[in-house]
Amino acid sequence: MLDIEALRADTPGCVNVIHLNNAGSALAPRIVTDTVVEHLRREEEIGGYEAYTEAKDRIDAVYESIGRLINAPADHVALVESATVAWDRGLQAIAFSDPLQPGDRMLVSGSEYASNVLPLLQLAKRTGATIEVIPDAADGAVDVDAFTSMLDDRVRIVSINHAPSQNGLLNDVAAIGDVLRLRGSSAWYLVDACQSVGQLPVDRERIGCDVLSATGRKFLRGPRATGFLVVSQRMLDELEPFPLDLHAATWTAIDSYDVASGAARFESWEKPYAALLGLGAAVDYALACGLESISERIGALAHRARTSLVDIPGVTVRDRGSTLTGIVTIRVGDPAGLVSELRSRGINTSLSTPDYSQIDFGRDHTPGLVRISPHAYNTEDEVDQAIDVIAELVRS
Description:
The protein contains 14 helices and 15 strands. The chain is α/β, with parallel strands linked by helices. α2 packs antiparallel against α3 (48-70), α2 (30-46) runs antiparallel to α10 (273-289) and α11 (291-309) packs parallel to α14. The longest helix has 23 residues, at 48-70. It is globular, with a radius of gyration of 21 Å.
């Protein structure tokens, strides 16, 4: 059982705002900010290289913590600047070491995020491969049966987002992984866990993906400009990232090099170590709270919001899926105006627009959505206050 008052006491921002934008960038616990600032101060006092050397054991421990968080070996974890960078590093390795050919197929979910689809579009344009959208099931999530029927030897990449940014559904990424294994597919499987890591338990081993990407700043409550990539053993055995630097590989002779063992090959030498230590503090904080407890609390607050919002004239709850996440999306007449007015009253939400996910938004020609995303430190009263203000603003 979570101690909500303790969570709020650990979160200084709670006294300033009602923060329901955790799918964008969550309020950090004090320990995260203190960890970042303390390392920056140490760099100020003794120098950046020296502060790194002093903190190396703690930096190495971040990999171990992330491994515990998502059930993966620590040496399969790479620390990078964002979920997008993580996803791109995985795709770059595929494109460099196992190039696509004309006629190859790439399958994506209908709720896929723009930053994942855009590089696939570039690959399609350059190689002659094609992108195909996996149909939705009746509940709105990816149709696993339809995916199974689409799968053949020409499918080279499968890209699925676990919890879409602009929709409250949860895709069954483990079922997709099961199909790929049962069919003996050689397709590379990329899972965007940007919105799921931190708000619910995520098990990379159970999912069976080759690439799992996540960020620090969202439900994990870490610093901005932090993220991580987790890769399969197959990625390490068969692929070489591009480009390599002197951290990812060793220049052994004028015409040769050795690639780093483990996922370090997906990293770059220079990193924001203060922020990454803060990421480690955020992961440890989430683990101490318990992901099951966090997930239950977020789900309860999101359910409270949805059940109230459906009764407000002029508001349409857009979320689909048999399993829903802590991301609540609503359609109103002026979504941008509503987000702005809520912020002026100390209530943080966010605006999702069609450029985030052309396929998903194109289904019903939605011009924009208001996204409400509570976290475990939010209270029922905060959710109710936000709903009351939304009802007032939509009526006016």
